[in-house]
Design a protein that fits this description.
Layout: H1 3-8, H2 19-29, H3 39-55, H4 62-79, H5 84-89, H6 97-127, H7 148-162, H8 177-190, E1 196-198, H9 199-205, H10 209-224, E2 228-232, E3 239-243, H11 247-253, H12 256-262
Antiparallel strand pairs: 1-3, 2-3
Helix pairs in contact: 2-6, 3-4, 6-10, 7-9, 7-10, 8-10
Length: 264
């Protein structure tokens, strides 16, 4: 192992929730272009990481082993020569593209989770302050406070439940975040403004984990743009989605090209 690789791999192994976390860290630390990953370099560093983990008797999940095989497979495909004439007839997609898409999707989800965690900490600090009562109108009913953190908890519970359902997946599903944004737009545009839809049921209707993650990111985007709002009928009850006051304005500026550009 080179000295450069040793420096890069000087980290705490338990900080990585999965192989995508590790790959993102390697890419970001070296300021590499995620859309043009130097697959030979990243593969070598990833395998060096696994060697270091084995030397430290650190048990890695099967996901790490599978990713190692995936990287080696992608590397081998990039090294194979292509027939120029065949390339003209049937251009081959970059073998790295699927990995790039997975990394970008994972990064968006990770950033969203971190943002919500920070938001929760701020809310807890604010509402635990007894002085906050000075700013509460005594006439106004407080109602139920539903936050994006509550939505994250709902999402995590659904993900946990489907672990026991091995058939809950569809190979090569091509669903995207823009697809889910358009699906939610059509759903709430067709119904009455007072209609509410259970977030749990929406997640459970998805046929794969990828579909659920894309749906979650779509909901975050539309809540941020005030197109949708979160609601709850009773304390600790199910979280519903409903059409918000900014629904029409949000979709007026959220054109299809804009969505595709932000989530390509």
């Amino acid at each position: 192992m080179s000295s450069a690789s040793e420096g890069l791999l000087n980290f705490h192994l338990e900080h990585y929730d999965g192989p995508l976390d590790l790959l993102l860290d390697l890419i970001r630390k070296q300021q590499l272009n995620i859309h043009d990953i130097p697959i030979a370099q990243i593969t070598a560093q990833y395998l060096a990481f696994m060697e270091q983990a084995a030397a430290m008797d650190f048990e890695l999940s099967a996901e790490f082993v599978y990713m190692a095989a995936t990287l080696i497979h992608i590397k081998s495909k990039t090294l194979l020569p292509r027939d120029p004439e065949l390339e003209k007839i049937a251009p081959e997609e970059d073998p790295r593209q699927e990995l790039v898409d997975r990394l970008l999707e994972h990064e968006r989800f990770k950033n969203a989770a971190e943002m919500l965690q920070q938001k929760r900490m701020i809310e807890e600090a604010v509402w635990s302050n007894p002085q906050i009562q000075k700013f509460v109108d005594e006439v106004e009913e407080p109602g139920l406070q539903v936050t994006l953190f509550d939505l994250v908890q709902t999402f995590e519970k659904v993900l946990e439940r489907i672990k026991a359902r091995p058939t809950y997946s569809v190979d090569k599903e091509e669903v995207t975040v823009p697809d889910m944004i358009n699906h939610l737009r059509d759903m709430f545009a067709a119904g009455a403004k007072s209609d509410r839809v259970s977030a749990t049921r929406l997640f459970e209707r998805q046929r794969s984990r990828r579909g659920m993650i894309c749906l979650f990111l779509a909901i975050l985007e539309l809540v941020k743009r005030q197109a949708l709002a979160l609601a709850q009928s009773e304390a600790f009850g199910d979280i519903d989605l409903k059409r918000a006051g900014g629904f029409d304005a949000a979709f007026a500026e959220l054109s299809a090209p804009t969505i595709e550009e932000e989530y390509r």
